[in-house]
Write a structure and sequence with these properties.
With 185 residues, this protein is of the alpha+beta class. It has a single domain, classed as Sandwich (Immunoglobulin-like), CATH 2.60.40. It is built from three helices and nine strands; from the N terminus they run αβββββαβββαβ. The protein has helices at residues 7-46, 114-117, 170-178, and strands spanning 52-55, 72-80, 86-91, 97-103, 108-113, 121-128, 147-151, 155-163, 181-184. Strands 1-2-8-4-5 form a five-stranded antiparallel sheet. The longest helix has 40 residues, at 7-46.
């Protein structure tokens, strides 16, 4: 008994399955990066390089953080290390806080929280390490306790977060974050 198989349909069936697998992989691999880059690009419209910007819990609309928590105060600082390093003088309230440095495509470059740091005031010097050699710290006023971070990304955003334990403390927490400074070195 001989079975007659139409290889035309088998060929197109395998091609369809392979195409579906490629499309699925592309979506899974590239969509998160594209979405993060789009959010950072939208922040580019409102934020200047090396200037601290705050997003109030009362503020609505599409921002860098589309799903931000109402009990967290946020501040952002864009950076471009192509010319000079970025010096961050961060001030945080005595609650839980984090600071994160992200590349322009959303990669985490550096992060630190209150438990790791053990202090509520710190300085970070962000250097361009993308060329394989760090920028010179010459002319940059960096103290002995300054945290030096070498970034493979020349541009991105620094995100400051601080917990607001009680809604009545929202303004005080935001004012503490506002005392932070980002400046090109």
């Amino acid at each position: 008994m001989r079975v007659n198989i139409d290889f035309h349909w088998v060929y197109w069936g395998i091609a369809t399955v392979l195409l579906a697998a490629v499309v699925h992989l592309a979506i899974v691999l590239f969509l998160p990066t594209m979405k993060t880059a789009r959010h950072i690009a939208s922040f580019d419209v409102t934020g200047e390089i090396a200037r601290l910007e705050q997003i109030s819990a009362r503020e609505s609309g599409d921002t860098l953080l589309s799903r931000r928590s109402p009990d967290i105060a946020y501040a952002f600082c864009r950076f471009d290390l192509s010319e000079r390093p970025l010096k961050i003088s961060a001030r945080f309230p005595k609650t839980f806080w984090t600071i994160g440095v992200f590349s322009d495509i959303g990669d985490n470059v550096y992060s630190l929280n209150d438990r790791q740091a053990g202090v509520n005031e710190l300085e970070i010097l962000l250097l361009d390490g993308s060329s394989g050699t760090d920028q010179s710290t010459e002319g940059v006023n960096a103290g002995a306790d300054t945290i030096v971070v070498s970034s493979l990304a020349q541009s991105g955003v620094v995100v400051f977060r601080a917990l607001v334990e009680n809604p009545s403390e929202q303004e005080a927490v935001e004012q503490t974050l506002a005392a932070s400074v980002c400046e090109m070195g």
